[in-house]
Specification:
single chain, alpha/beta, 3 domains, six-stranded mixed beta sheet, nine-stranded mixed beta sheet, Rossmann fold, Protein-Tyrosine Phosphatase, Chain A
Length: 430
């Protein structure tokens, strides 16, 4: 991987990861060409409009590029051109200790918390990966003393072959991104790749309560976390999080709401304890943590109605966890956007307590019809703005309005963050 001088390399995908990979390759003397499915990028001087007509020593793939059914990738595979993930490229140049966190939900929260804990403990720390800072962009800044906390998505793992973190954590696994992978079994296989290069010196941190996680092919050396009391590991008991007999933190000191976030905190504690961070430091970092935006964020109360922004909830599992965490008897739920081939019957068949469903976007009518079939009061709207305004009109004092869409945002918004921001602006109006 490191002998790049003079090699002809194609970087496929020009998002942040592709740009970072291009710079890293260029720094090591590679002859870099670029390709993107978005032909608006073709004005760049090194853009290769017909990459299959040229010979390359290697193709570096950005995580946003869909592999299944991709003719360009199939073409390179047929001629046995090495295809390298940006994750593998960046991590191969990292020095220090690499920690990886994956799962369907909670990755950003755990990585952000870990970053704060390691920094407070005086460690040189880089938080990167799916959280927004490509690992290729920080690789050359790392030293042997560095701790690299990498949020690792299924998109990044899909073509990974050499990624080998010192500690890897799987938080939870539920149906998501079926439009990308084709089946839940394939999604699970891809997630399991985080352990593919494990050696005896490496450790897995896993959620003992998650049957999908526990059914994976796991390494022998494991550290568990659970909402149930354990003899060994991190667990929840009497409103506190413990490691063995050591009380780490009370939930009253955690500025995050809901059981799903307590599981996130337990995973964080397990990793920090593994690296011998003192409980005092862990407690201080967690208690002063500022939650990432658009993740079960309480927006306050207006006219007796509470509002919560959970725009990051882009799958059904996350919606379920949000409903359970808030435990409201008067919940008005905003659902919708661009469905990722998920079956919303799996939400409503469990009979969650919902006063009214306001569905919107590309999947709005579909979700509303499923909700009505299961006996729920539901309406559908063309846009999230219309659904949000209807919630403000409908809600009575004592109600709670929750935006937890269960869908991607791309039918209407550039990202879940833009969707959440618009929701917040509408909520704050008059």
């Amino acid at each position: 991987m490191k002998k790049l001088k003079g090699k002809r390399v194609l970087v496929y995908g020009l998002g942040r990861s592709g740009q970072a990979a291009s710079k890293l390759l260029h720094d090591f003397g590679a002859c870099v060409s670029i390709y993107d499915d978005d032909k608006n990028e073709r004005s760049l001087f090194c853009f290769d409009e017909q990459p299959l007509l040229h010979a390359y020593d290697m193709v570096v793939l950005s995580p946003g590029i869909k592999v299944r059914g991709n003719a360009v990738i199939s073409g390179f595979q047929a001629r046995k051109t090495p295809i390298v993930s940006e994750l593998d490229l960046g991590s191969s140049f990292c020095k220090g200790t690499l920690i990886a966190v994956t799962g369907t939900n909670g990755k950003t929260t755990v990585c952000s918390l870990l970053g704060k804990i390691f920094e407070l403990a005086g460690k040189e720390t880089f938080v990167c990966g799916n959280i927004g800072l490509p690992i290729s962009s920080i690789a050359l800044k790392t030293t042997k003393k560095s701790f690299i906390v990498c949020e690792t998505s299924n998109f990044q793992l899909e073509t990974s072959k050499s990624f080998a973190p010192k500690v890897a954590c799987i938080l939870n696994l539920e149906e998501d991104h079926l439009d990308r992978h084709g089946s839940f079994d394939e999604y699970l296989r891809v997630k399991n790749l985080i352990f593919q290069n494990y050696k005896s010196s490496q450790t897995g941190v896993v959620n003992l309560d998650d049957k999908n996680v526990m059914n994976l092919k796991l390494p022998k050396k494991l550290l568990f976390f659970s909402l149930n009391q354990l003899k060994k590991g991190v667990f929840f008991k009497n409103g506190c999080i413990y490691y063995g007999k050591t009380r780490i933190i009370s939930i009253d000191q955690i500025p995050l709401i809901g059981l799903k976030n307590y599981q996130n905190v337990m995973a964080t504690v397990a990793i920090a304890i593994y690296f011998k961070i003192k409980p005092r430091v862990i407690r201080e970092a967690i208690s002063s943590f500022m939650p990432a935006p658009h993740r079960l964020n309480y927006l306050g109360e207006k006219n007796g109605v509470k509002f919560v922004n959970d725009s990051k909830a882009t799958n059904i599992a996350c919606v379920k966890m949000a409903i359970e965490s808030l435990n409201s008897k008067n919940l008005i739920l905003l659902l919708g956007g661009q469905n990722k081939d998920l079956n919303f019957e799996k939400l409503f068949m469990e009979k969650p307590l919902i006063k009214k469903c306001l569905c919107f976007g590309e999947a709005g009518k579909e979700i509303a019809s499923v909700a009505v079939r299961f006996g729920y009061d539901a309406e559908s709207f063309e846009t999230m703005e219309e659904a949000t305004r209807r919630s403000k009109q409908f809600a009575k004092p004592g109600d709670l309005v929750l935006l937890s869409p269960g869908c991607a945002s791309f039918d209407e918004f550039a990202s879940y963050a833009v969707r959440g921001q618009i929701f917040m602006e509408i909520v704050s109006e008059g």
